[in-house]
Amino acid sequence: MKSKKRNRIIGQVIVYVLLILLALLMLVPFVWMLSASLKFNKDVFVIPFEWIPKEPRWQNYIDIWTKIPLAKFTLNTAKLTIIVTFLQLLTSSFAAYAFAKLEFKGRNTLFLAYVATIAVPWQVYMVPQFMFMRRLGLADTHLAIIILQAFSAFGVFMMRQFYEGIPDSLCEAARIDGMTEYGIYAKIMLPLSKPALSTLIIFTFVNTWNDFLGPLIYLTTESKKTLQIGLKMFISQYSAEYGLIMAASVLSLIPVFIVFISLQKYFVAGITTGSVKG
Amino acid sequence: MAAQLSTMEKNMKKRQRRRNLIAYSFIAPNFLGFAIFTLGPIVLALLMSFAEWDGSNAMKFIGLKNFVEIFKDDRFLASLRNTVVYSIFTVPITLVIALGLAILLNQKIKGRNFFRTVTFFPYVASLVAVAAVWNMLFTPAKGGIVNQFLMNVLHVAPLKWAASSSTVMLTIIMFSVWKNMGYYMVIYLAGLQGISEDLYEAASLDGANSWQKFRHITVPQLKPTTFFVTIMLTINCFKVYDIVYMLAGGSNGVVNKSAMVLVYYIYEEAFRNWKLGKASASALVLFAIVLVVTLIQFKGEKNYAND
């Protein structure tokens, strides 16, 4: 009995050692980023690396706003991300309700079309899509980026999987009480789907905020560019401005981390229903 | 009687039509956007791959010539080879690590949520930002922190990482695993939580050890999850672009043959050379590969399910 207990303690120790190593591996680049963002360029590569700078150079965080139009880039990205996330949530959950809870002609065929396109990488049709948008006069507009991201098949699929798990009897009861389908969607389904909605918010927010290839293809006017494009531009132009690059990088991560951390308690629950269970 | 029946039938039909309309009204906002801007371009992609087009003059259909041309193009062949190499290494490595992490983080331990959150950080972090850090950590100079570690702790020669054609793919693969494993870890975590505790308890009563439980309960129960993860990973690997752009692209975003990948080739042909037909033909090759890999995995999954 005693040796069994000892084995368990040894097991626990091994688990913790592994976890701490893992956390280090995941966090070191971020800590390094933060640390370098508070240094002079010449001190970034000094050996041994100073993890906590003795004289933090906060000036980097002030200079970066004037070195590139960072405020404009951030504003553009924030605008796009918020609109896309809102539209994505609204249209996906709306369509998913019909696929999960309503009987209608062509339901299976339509849903199959959605599922099939999830497996077609965007990169396969990005060129014709761009030519089409250009024909519509949407090249170099924010509207193009919004259209690009707001109607994903993935969102419909994920929400539908979640709704499937909500008992039909709930809807039936509401129908008998005389509630319309729109009422059931708004008053019963939406409040119940917090985990799925949170997961979809995280994915859409993160994808739109961090998207690179879309804005790279579509946006050519500097004042319309997004944070990621602006950051990459800055890195290419001033590749030796290590401190400033790192300061801008830290700033670009903050919104995503805030969204993720505030919604993460729903996260695993949302993924469970969203991805695997058919 | 008959008249009564037919009015009832009419009413039913009417109700069904009403129900259809309500359902369509739910789907319409998403479907219109989806059909016009996704389905449409997919069809157009098929057409364009058999045509010669520069985007402004008239499209000219040339049959299979685009395909013949790209398979004679060194850069295309290099991009195909690199994409396959990248996927062959990245898929299994990411999968195994993600599974290991999920098992580790599924234990009842203190601070579990902290570790889960931390593992997911690289996935949500902006690629441009974390790639900038990686480029500094993995700088080809001897003063880089990773090279310092190699020389002083492991006592091996420093590497040139992304700056050398022999290690550039290695650097890209390592970065990709680090960045994305948290996502697949969460999917595995969800899968693990779907396994009933009773199975493990029954096995314990039969005297099974941890390895046996893993081998005979966890692995088979996770089969659907593994299937899903493998497909997602493969698709995501074949569409790799921005990682290569950040780690191996010069200041103008041009990469040389040692790091060229399929999507890079498509981008270049389309938006630098305006050879839209050639770009679409290579996009179709990309799609064909993804499709074949997915079908093979579907078949494997079915065979397993029939066992």
Attribute tags:
heterodimer, A: 278 residues, mainly alpha, 77% helix, flat, B: 307 residues, two-stranded antiparallel sheet, 13 helices, 75% helix, 1% strand
Record the SSE blueprint.
The complex is a heterodimer of chains A (278) and B (307).
Chain A: H1 2-36, H2 41-44, H3 59-67, H4 70-101, H5 107-118, H6 122-135, H7 142-150, H8 153-164, H9 168-176, H10 181-192, H11 194-210, H12 213-218, H13 227-237, H14 242-263, H15 267-276
Chain B: H1 2-48, E1 51-52, E2 60-61, H2 65-70, H3 74-105, H4 112-124, H5 127-137, H6 145-152, H7 168-193, H8 197-205, H9 210-221, H10 223-238, H11 242-248, H12 262-272, H13 276-306
Antiparallel strand pairs in B: 1-2
Helix pairs in contact in B: 3-7, 3-10, 3-12, 4-7, 5-11, 7-10, 7-11, 10-13, 12-13
Task: Summarize the model shown.
Chain A has helices at about 1-35, 40-45, 60-65, 70-100, 105-120, 120-135, 140-150, 155-165, 170-175, 180-190, 195-210, 215-220, 225-235, 240-265, 265-275. Chain A is about 75% helix and about 0% strand. A two-stranded antiparallel sheet of chain B has the order 1-2.
Any overview of this molecule?
Chain A is an all-alpha fold and about 280 residues long. Helix content of chain A is about 75%, strand content about 0%. Chain A has helices at about 1-35, 40-45, 60-65, 70-100, 105-120, 120-135, 140-150, 155-165, 170-175, 180-190, 195-210, 215-220, 225-235, 240-265, 265-275. The longest helix of chain A is centred in the first third of the chain and has 35 residues, at about 1-35. Chain A is flat. Chain B has about 300 residues and is mainly α. Chain B is built from 13 helices and two strands. In chain B, strands 1-2 form a two-stranded antiparallel sheet. The longest helix of chain B has about 45 residues, at about 1-50. The radius of gyration of chain B is 26 Å and the shape is flat. The model of chain B has no long low-confidence stretch (mean pLDDT about 85). At the A-B interface, helix 1, helix 4, helix 5, helix 6 and helix 7 of A face helix 1, helix 3, helix 4, helix 5 and helix 7 of B.
